[in-house]
Amino acid sequence: QVNLKEAQLTLAYADIRAPISGVVMQRLIEMEDLVRANQQVLMLADLEPLLARIFIPEKRMHQIIEGQEARVLVESLPEGMFTGRIRMISPGVDPQSGTVKVTLEVPDTSGRLKPGMFAAVRIITDRHAHTLIIPKKALIIETDEDDVFAVIDGKARRMRVELGFVEGDQVEVLAGLAEDDP
To answer: Which one of 36, 52, 70, 132 has the lowest number of neighbouring Cβ atoms within 10 Å?
Structure first.
């Protein structure tokens, strides 16, 4: 009877409960394996929201703050552009790489994002609304000044422009050219 009560008590404590709700990512035991107390049996992941850890160069650290918007591009997914926000910024710099660890929160209501996917991340550091943008190849590169050709009265004229933000193959024109100039 004592042995039976002891076995029933042991059985009562045999339930395995997860500390979080989530999705099973990996099973670390097989059927009929002996499981010891505090042994890890499953790997769980909370997929909502998904977290992405990125590393930013130390010299760019001043451009980021918590809550800042980011674009996450996953090339393996069609229409794989997601919006995220900076959730945490590490207080220290890794002395070996000279980078700061930043954690992004990326909500995915469609369930298409999976842990371990590769992504390109762009953090929105500034917005320039209602600005004039021209292709970078429109700039004349013969001199040190920033010039473009514009058609005025049927003739091509060289115009000096003041440039602002540059991204990819486009540049922002701050002064020297109007939106309706040909």
So the answer is: 36
